[in-house]
């Protein structure tokens, strides 16, 4: 039996992950706004601190893995960009920073963060908002969304997911994470039929955009199917998986970006690439 923490456990894909872990005989400490072992509001710093401390107390300082599924979708509202930023970005990174030692204590922990295929299929997400988030500056990020008017919540969603995914890939390879036996990876779903998507489909303007979005496989993803991928990413099958982004989106990303990835290192980036080679050798000496 292993011990896991799962946020966003009360609904959608988080709930489907919990169901599978419990059925396999594992212990799960759940975190959500309601119906959870730890009821905490991840949109506030005190709520996040509470979630960190209560989970650590419940598991006795050792975690075999964590799934960060709590998230908010784009919806109309002036405050929505700030809320999305707090939950989708800080609600992941502050919890993982707080749980890192407990994950390291397990020796071979696995972490799965919910990203989104909006990271590669949503155009115009402002780079300066992403940079601000990675620097820990929520206010600067939210300010960068203002010029988008009614589309600000969608941009905040895209920005939060790009930033959290980059945070995952940066941290994943660091001595504090992979060096401590923690495998940190992300899953990037496309449109999956959960209450989050249902809420978007109930908003006429968003429903139109979602229904016209190219999904080569057709229809929407099933939350259980995404949870199956997460379970695999928590298993020993992920021992050699570090900083990966697993896209499960019915082909939308490939439709738009088939030639963008894989992409060899361009000549203008060669110096940076060679620098990273040297840094690695120095670190491991
Ligand atoms: P969902 O709405 O069914 O579940 C999200 C859960 O997060 C809910 O239980 C909710 O209560 C919780 N949550 C929201 N705000 C919170 C807060 N302030 N504090 C604590 N908990 C909070 O959504 P889902 O579709 O299962 O989404 C899971 C993850 O997958 C999210 O991060 C979402 O951004 C991402 N995602 C979803 C889709 C999709 O189409 N459904 C696509 C790509 C990525």
Automatic annotation (TrEMBL):
<dbReference type="Pfam" id="PF13561">
    <property type="entry name" value="adh_short_C2"/>
</dbReference>
<comment type="similarity">
    <text>Belongs to the short-chain dehydrogenases/reductases (SDR) family.</text>
</comment>
<dbReference type="Pfam" id="PF00106">
    <property type="entry name" value="adh_short"/>
</dbReference>
<dbReference type="InterPro" id="IPR002347">
    <property type="entry name" value="SDR_fam"/>
</dbReference>
<dbReference type="InterPro" id="IPR036291">
    <property type="entry name" value="NAD(P)-bd_dom_sf"/>
</dbReference>
<protein>
    <submittedName>
        <fullName>NAD-dependent epimerase</fullName>
    </submittedName>
</protein>
<keyword id="KW-0560">Oxidoreductase</keyword>
<dbReference type="GO" id="GO:0050664">
    <property type="term" value="F:oxidoreductase activity, acting on NAD(P)H, oxygen as acceptor"/>
</dbReference>
